[in-house]
């Protein structure tokens, strides 16, 4: 198997919904694909100690994080019979209701695509050094803890 070159994962600010439509459209010509699976992470208006989250400001040591994303992507290709795997994550401020994570896999069959997407999302949440600062309505903040 050829070694895939690392793909750029980070997008400044929210992920525009148009990016998802374009990604799907770009795969229509690939006749060996029978299924796509997509995960979209969206900012919630969580309530913490009586204050409501209005945005999350994401930061990362980009080079290190991009390397971890690449390792996870390679592990996904090794574990699942998928055709494509795309991952995009926001950096900077993302408001409530906006998208911050876009994971998109393609395969000949739906079960494999769904399992690969789930694997990618769980590995990203567990291993990628991306940090989110929850910003509250009163402009105070706290560092987000992944659950």
From TrEMBL:
Coiled coil: none annotated. Pathway: Cofactor biosynthesis; molybdopterin biosynthesis. Gene3D superfamilies: Molybdopterin biosynthesis MoaE subunit. It is an enzyme of class 2 (transferase). Pfam families: MoaE. GO terms for molecular function: molybdopterin synthase activity. It catalyses: 2 [molybdopterin-synthase sulfur-carrier protein]-C-terminal-Gly-aminoethanethioate + cyclic pyranopterin phosphate + H2O = molybdopterin + 2 [molybdopterin-synthase sulfur-carrier protein]-C-terminal Gly-Gly + 2 H(+). GO terms for biological process: Mo-molybdopterin cofactor biosynthetic process. It comes from the Bacteria. Keywords: Molybdenum cofactor biosynthesis. Its EC number is 2.8.1.12. Heterotetramer of 2 MoaD subunits and 2 MoaE subunits. Also stable as homodimer. The enzyme changes between these two forms during catalysis. Belongs to the MoaE family. This is Molybdopterin synthase catalytic subunit. It comes from Flagellimonas zhangzhouensis. The lineage of its organism: Bacteria, Pseudomonadati, Bacteroidota, Flavobacteriia, Flavobacteriales.
């Amino acid at each position: 198997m050829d070694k895939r070159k690392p793909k750029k994962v980070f997008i400044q600010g929210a992920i525009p919904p148009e990016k998802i439509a374009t990604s799907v459209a770009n795969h229509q010509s690939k006749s060996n694909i029978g299924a796509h699976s997509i995960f979209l992470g969206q900012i919630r208006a969580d309530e913490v100690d009586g204050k409501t989250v209005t945005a999350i400001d994401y930061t990362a040591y980009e080079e290190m994080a991009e390397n971890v994303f690449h390792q996870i992507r390679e592990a996904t290709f090794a574990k699942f019979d998928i055709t494509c795997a795309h991952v995009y994550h926001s950096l900077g401020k993302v408001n409530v209701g906006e998208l911050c994570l876009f994971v998109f896999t393609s395969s000949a069959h739906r079960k494999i695509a769904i399992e690969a997407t789930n694997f990618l999302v769980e590995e990203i949440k567990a291993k990628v050094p991306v940090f989110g600062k929850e910003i509250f309505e009163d402009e105070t903040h706290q560092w987000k803890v992944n659950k």
